[in-house]
UniProtKB/TrEMBL annotation:
It comes from the Eukaryota. Residues 14-29, 327-341 have a biased composition (Polar residues). InterPro entries: Kinase-like_dom_sf, Prot_kinase_dom, Protein_kinase_ATP_BS, Ser-Thr/Tyr_kinase_cat_dom, Ser/Thr_kinase_AS. This is Protein kinase domain-containing protein. Residues 1-29, 323-350 are annotated as: Disordered. It comes from Lolium multiflorum. Belongs to the protein kinase superfamily. Keywords: ATP-binding, Kinase, Nucleotide-binding, Serine/threonine-protein kinase, Transferase. ATP binds at residue 75. Residues 47-319 form the Protein kinase domain.
Length: 350
């Protein structure tokens, strides 16, 4: 067990001494309904930070349980974290404004002398990335039906951020590591430290320094600094391709997942795209629907990408196709549910 003293990050300003630029966020923080924890309480609830369950840009994440035995995940800001006070405040204030079944819930926070921490609901099945690539002793392969349902739920969470809030919120770090799963594999989007909010409903983009994760970042946003909802759409398209292929966005020596999939679908054979671990157990039309949606999301020109509402609709269709796959249909690596030869299928017209 590590000593508690190892969890002292660089000193953060106290609420009263915070820079003027963050004062409004501080005021919102105090007016929020989120619970404010003391560092002593976090030490108690984690049994002196006994069990680490993950790590992100903010720092290590620890398992804990509150006095009423509610399970929580506690993100402690680490000494090496590139995320500072502004990201901390952005995440707390964003999550106190949004409430959706497909967004992770913030239980509270700690801002005490040297300690910054975020306390979330505990998601026992880890991240979508863990499930796809066998981390954390994940022994089973996700079925196609489960994969499509997970990304549909995630898309609904993103659509809410873009259109369901009083002011649109751009997540800015959509990736499979930030889609968390509960014990029933229900999906929720997490990690709002980089999110941005439109200041008015007349804006069509925000000018900002590009930020995000390698492999997921919208190339147009990267080159221009113009952030829009379509930037999240691009990142989500990469996640869709991860779900279809089971592969990471970037494979050394093999390039980016968008280019890899483009080469494979040119043959008209979706089995070349599909994750081999599924053993061909999927409806071909459902697979094509998701892959085609992913390719639309990841077009280079942001203006050509669909809004998340359209992505949600397409994924609902993909899920319905998979759910209708009967016992009499041959598995997806050979025929579709219509019985037509697979070679007749290809990307849908956009």
């Amino acid at each position: 067990m590590q000593e508690v003293s190892t969890y002292y990050p660089p000193s953060a300003p106290t609420p009263n001494s915070a820079p003027v630029s963050t004062k409004s966020n501080v005021d919102q923080l105090h007016n929020s309904e989120s619970r404010q924890f003391t560092y002593k309480e976090l030490v108690k609830y984690t049994n002196k930070f006994e069990r680490s369950i993950g790590q992100g840009g903010f720092g290590l994440v620890y398992y804990g349980h509150l006095e009423d035995n509610t399970e929580v995940a506690i993100k402690m800001r680490s000494e090496s974290s590139s995320h500072g006070l502004d990201e901390f405040l952005a995440e707390v204030n964003s999550l106190t404004k949004v409430h959706h079944r497909n967004l992770v819930s913030l239980v509270g926070y700690c801002w005490e002398k040297d300690h910054l921490a975020l306390v979330y609901e505990y998601m026992s099945r880890g991240s979508l990335c863990d499930q796809l690539r066998g981390k954390n002793d994940v022994g089973e392969t996700l079925s196609w039906r489960t994969r499509v349902r997970i990304v549909l739920e995630s898309a609904q969470g993103l659509d809410y951020l873009h259109k369901g809030c009083s002011l649109p919120i751009i997540h800015r770090d959509v990736k499979s590591n930030n889609i968390l799963l509960d014990e029933n594999l229900r999906a929720k989007i997490a990690d709002f430290g980089l999110c941005k909010t439109y200041l008015s409903d007349t804006q069509d983009h925000i000018s900002t320094i590009a930020a995000g994760s390698a492999g997921y970042m919208d190339p147009e946003y990267y080159h221009t600094g113009w952030l829009a909802e379509s930037s999240d759409v691009y990142s989500f398209g990469v996640v869709l391709l991860e779900v279809a292929t089971g592969e990471p966005p970037i494979l050394p020596g093999h390039g980016h997942i968008v280019q890899r999939v483009k080469q494979k679908i040119s043959s008209g054979n979706v089995s070349l795209v599909a994750d081999a671990k599924m053993g061909g157990a999927y409806d071909v039309n459902s697979m094509w629907k998701l892959v085609d949606t992913a390719m639309a999301c990841t077009t280079d020109a942001a203006i050509q990408r669909p809004p998340m509402s359209v992505v949600v609709a397409q994924l609902k269709e993909s899920l319905a196709l998979e759910e209708s796959r009967g016992d009499n249909s041959v598995t997806g690596s050979f025929t579709s549910t219509t019985g037509a030869p697979m070679s007749t299928f290809g990307p849908l017209a956009r």
